[in-house]
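Q: Predict the assembly, please.
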Amino acid sequence: MRAIRCHRLDGPDGLALENVTAPAPAEGELTVDVEAAALNFADTLMTRGTYQEKPPLPFTPGLELAGRVRAIGSGVHGFAAGQRVLAVVDHGAFAEVARVRAADAIPLPEAMPAEVAAGFPIAYGTAHGGLEWRARLQPGETLLVNGAAGGVGLTAVEVGRAMGARVIATARGAERLALARAHGAEVTIDTGQADLREAVQAATAGRGVDVVFDPVGGALGEASLRCLAWEGRYLVIGLAAGLPTLKANHLLVKNVSAVGFYWGSYRRHAPDRVQASFEMLFGWWQSGKLRPHVSAVYPLEHVQAALAELEARRSTGKVVLRMS
Ligand SMILES: NC(=O)c1ccc[n+]([C@@H]2O[C@H](COP(=O)([O-])OP(=O)(O)OC[C@H]3O[C@@H](n4cnc5c(N)ncnc54)[C@H](OP(=O)(O)O)[C@@H]3O)[C@@H](O)[C@H]2O)c1
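A: Predicted assembly structure:
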């Protein structure tokens, strides 16, 4: 099979397309004939050795995929060869065949195209889990989403809307803001132009927002914490722009909470919740409440260009690799 392999922790330059032996499933696993795999910001970190998970070299990157079950390992029940699934893996999605823990494979609605399904689980799973389980977003509350044109940010705009919140979105530039509006944001703020706190105060009649969904961090994260209303919740999703410094006095004065959320850990700690979340998200997708945005599809062999697009902040929504 063809697979992308990372030989040096050098970002796109350390990757090569190679022919390798297709894997067989171990106990508790499936192998999947991958139709499409999606890129994540984490791939840019993992291929530079700066992500929390550091697989030994050489490894095949890629964290999420969609395809058909190829072979079923011992002890696995409930799957059939040829069945369409999406799956999340620790790494290994950028290949024609991937090994998947059966617990991390989810049967797919027949109508969902592979390019959409490949980029569905991490972004929508994170948006829904973070907002429901950790931030406890309520209908009628106001939600501020940072990085709202990016992979996970754009899905948080849609999920926030589907949960009944009023959504304020931040991104860089008019085109990216227009995308956030098209996906449900009522108010948009250009992080390259406006003072965030002033713009949020103006949009909320001086009250502030109830929840911040923040995949960006850095100075924007720090400014966002100061946009919260009384009893607001700041949800730490990612650190694309670096670590924000969260000052305890800012938490104290307005009874604000800062809560962390790492969706991947729920696959091990609370798989039933993840399963139930997907059932609901698929329902929302089927009813048209979610409209996954794939901004680019590349053939597998163009993985370097795809990754460079993400690193340069040129992509919107999801970037996907197609195997054939
Ligand atoms: N907690 C979890 O379980 C979880 C799950 C998925 C992702 N994440 C994290 O969430 C973050 C976003 O992931 P993603 O896959 O959605 O990435 P993405 O598609 O690249 O989106 C990141 C967005 O952040 C904005 N940004 C602002 N400053 C940036 C900077 N210095 N470098 C890069 N982007 C910057 C960019 O929008 P503008 O250019 O418009 O500002 C970009 O659209 C990452 O930190 C990722 O690790 C966490």
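The longest helix spans residues 271-286. The pocket of NAP is lined by residues 40-42, 122, 126, 147, 149-153, 171-172, 176, 191, 215-216, 237-241, 261-264, 310, 313, 315 (CB under 6 Å).
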